[in-house]
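Anyone up for a design puzzle?
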């Protein structure tokens, strides 16, 4: 499929074992504010932690207004309760070049449970299998070791370092650039082998 001609009318819902990637809703406002006002979550982001609920309202309104296929902005929700646990976004889609960037975040209480891996696998599978992309990129603060390990587990390779790329809260930060090619994608989680 030629991604430059793929123009779905609505954001597709992607369902995994534990998660559902769906469109944002107004009732997600409190959870989105909790996510991006958490200094632990935003420690390595390119913007400071939010301080006003209005920022969450504006964020959801902006996500609802995004047009496909330029950006696929999903709320990551628990499959059974539909409660928001995080976000994942495919952005900077370039159809002719068959590539995009990916971003993600999880509420602190949901980190370390494999949710980020599941959400990214759902989004990346959609990018490769449905949108016809062949490359996904991620921009990560190299001090964010958990995020670096996460993308590496999915097959991403570290391809470079951009020094002093972001300035957040008076701090200058680097960016580690990661790339994932279609044949490198680790689609299934590794199954622990008995000793």
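Challenge accepted. My sequence:
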């Amino acid at each position: 499929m030629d991604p430059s001609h793929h123009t779905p009318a609505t954001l597709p819902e992607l369902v995994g074992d534990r998660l559902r990637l769906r469109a944002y809703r107004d009732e997600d406002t409190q959870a989105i504010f909790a996510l991006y006002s958490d200094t632990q979550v935003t420690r390595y982001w390119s913007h400071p932690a939010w301080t006003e609920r209005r920022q969450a309202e504006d964020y959801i309104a902006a996500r609802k207004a995004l047009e496909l296929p330029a950006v696929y902005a999903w709320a990551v929700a628990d499959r059974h309760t539909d409660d928001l646990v995080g976000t994942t976004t495919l952005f900077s889609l370039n159809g002719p070049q068959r590539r995009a960037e990916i971003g993600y975040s999880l509420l602190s209480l949901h980190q370390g449970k494999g949710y980020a891996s599941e959400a990214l696998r759902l989004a990346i599978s959609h990018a490769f299998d449905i949108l016809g992309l062949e490359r996904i990129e991620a921009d990560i603060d190299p001090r964010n070791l958990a995020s670096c390990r996460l993308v590496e587990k999915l097959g991403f390779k570290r391809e470079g370092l951009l020094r002093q790329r972001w300035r957040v809260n008076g701090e200058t930060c680097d960016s580690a650039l990661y790339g994932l090619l279609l044949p490198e994608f680790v689609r299934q989680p590794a199954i622990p082998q008995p000793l």
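A detail worth pointing out: The helical segments are 29-36, 53-65, 115-130, 145-153.
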